[in-house]
Amino acid sequence: RLQGQFFVPPHLPFRRCLMSFWGAKVAPGAEAKVDVPKGELLHLSQACLDPSAPSGATSRVMVEQGGTKYAVASLKEGVQECCALDLFLDLSEAKLTVSGKASVHLTGYF
């Protein structure tokens, strides 16, 4: 069946075919605040240091799941300020945090 200009397989609801941008600025020591649409996974696409990061500042993006923390991006001002990611996260089971000296901008989509 067609809805708008998109073909939608009969077994999928139309809303599942649309993607929505998501972004958060996360301060060091803080957890990303995410309003997750019911039944959706977050696709985390990129982590970038805040443009106002102090010279030489470092930050890490961490995913905590099952009581274990995993570093998924390590950023340093003037060296590696952005990191492309391709992570699908169920935020009912995982959380995103930032450690270090600078805020990080996280972006992705549902």
How would you explain this protein's 3D organization?
- It is a single chain.
- The chain is mainly β.
- It is 0% helix and 51% strand.
- The chain contains no helices and 9 strands.
- It has strands at 2-3, 6-7, 21-26, 42-49, 58-65, 68-76, 82-89, 94-100, 104-109.
- 18% of the residues are buried.
- The model is unreliable at 1-6 (pLDDT under 50).
Number of strands: 9
Structure class: mainly beta
Oligomeric state of shown chains: single chain
Give the overall shape. Answer: globular
- The biggest beta sheet, please? 4 strands, antiparallel
SSE order in H/E notation?
A: EEEEEEEEE
The termini sit apart by 23 Å
**Average pLDDT, to the nearest integer?**
88
Strand order within the widest sheet?
A: 3-9-4-7
Beta-strand percentage range: over 45%
Structure at a glance:
The chain is an all-beta fold and 110 residues long.
